[in-house]
Amino acid sequence: MQRFAELMQRFVEEVRIARHDTQVAADSARTTHADAERIRQEAIKLRADAEADVIRVAKDARAEADRIVAEARAGAERARADAQTKQQEALRAARSVDEARQEVDRASRDLGAMKETLLETFRDIRDRMVMAFGEVDALIEKFASSDHVVIVEDADEPATPVVIVRDADEPARADVSQVPRPDL
Q1: Taking CA 180 as the corner, what is the angle to CA 176 and CA 184, rounded to the nearest 5 degrees?
Q2: What is the reported pTM?
């Protein structure tokens, strides 16, 4: 019985040690479980924070992209408007150049016509002067050897010269209407 008592005591001791080991293992399991739960909760929190950061970053990136797109569109619109303005200015300048060329052409034609008219006028004046000098020479020849006297007097109009020829019969006016006046 003693052996039985020893066995029982040993059994009780083993049960106590096993119970203690079980208690320690259970405490360790509870601690491990609590640690695992805490880690799981931290992971959930980190995941939620990460998702919030991703949403915030995506939202900021979308807003920045929208701003960049809006600026690009506004810049493109300004560039298009500037291009249209410059195109219109170029068209106006081209029209002005064409109009100026036409005006130069017209002026050249007018100048050519004026030059031709002026040359014709000078030729006409030259021809009339030659004719007048011829008539004067003829009168001088005609009356130089005769007894006729040629007197130049002022006519009714002060700037019009009149040649009066006194012939044997009576004075007569010379026809000087085709002779150009020097003061004209």
Answers
A1: 135
A2: 0.38
